[in-house]
Amino acid sequence: MPEIRRLAPQVGAEARGVDVRALDAAGFAALYAAWLESGVLVIPDQLLTIPEFLEYSRRFGPLAPHPSKSTRHPDHPDITMLGINKFRPDGSLDAAVYRRGAEDWHTDGAYDPSPFKATQLYALAIPSRGGDTHFASGYAAYDALPARLKQRLDGVRGGFVYGGRRRSVSLLDKDDQNEPPALHPILRRHPETGRVALYFDPGKILFLEGMERAESDALIEEITAHMILPDSTYTHRWRVGDIVIWDNRCAYHRAAGDYPPEEDRIHWRVTIKERPGNEHPGNESAADRA
Question: pTM for this structure?
């Protein structure tokens, strides 16, 4: 069985002694339980082909191609290639590629009507310094919200789009840049653990439903200020062969965006959705099923 150890009090766990290619049902169940409990699961020392990575990833749920078509693997569209093509033909650095995921704390896929269950990365090339990924707990953020804010937000939905209020859509094809907002509860009950998390992404949210623009913007800023707690974080320092999977229903993340641009930082990335029939429970507000 895997050896599981916590990496930080509120978020993050590591599984040692694991070859994900050879996991039986009991071994995978132990990993899955550790992932649900910790929100972020690290499995080091893997050596995978693309088919092996995809097969393991599908044990968590169905895969869906990322909306950024330009960064999909040419032969395996379920895989996004992170860190490639960061230099333009003229030799200048494309900041949108180099700093992808580093602008704000966020959760992946809030802009999708069926928001992402999980994201998984597999490290292929790691720079000599920098390039870490920071994680934080959405459960801890909810637990620490002032009572007045919990009351005000219960039942409130946010409208999320890929580019958010800044309309940062340079990684999308033009045909995909004007999708309608997806609506999700800001206080969202996890379908598997039953715990409530602050489901929030300041870079993707467009508005809070039922509010005037000024009120919505002010409340978004207030929520953002409560999103990350100093004792609810874990920073992952990547090694080649690491697999890291995080639960977008209850965890936030942010790339550091600080590694030497001339060095490679390359990952395979997959987006994992809820299994059919489990989409709606995952989108319940805090008041639902109370």
Answer: 0.91
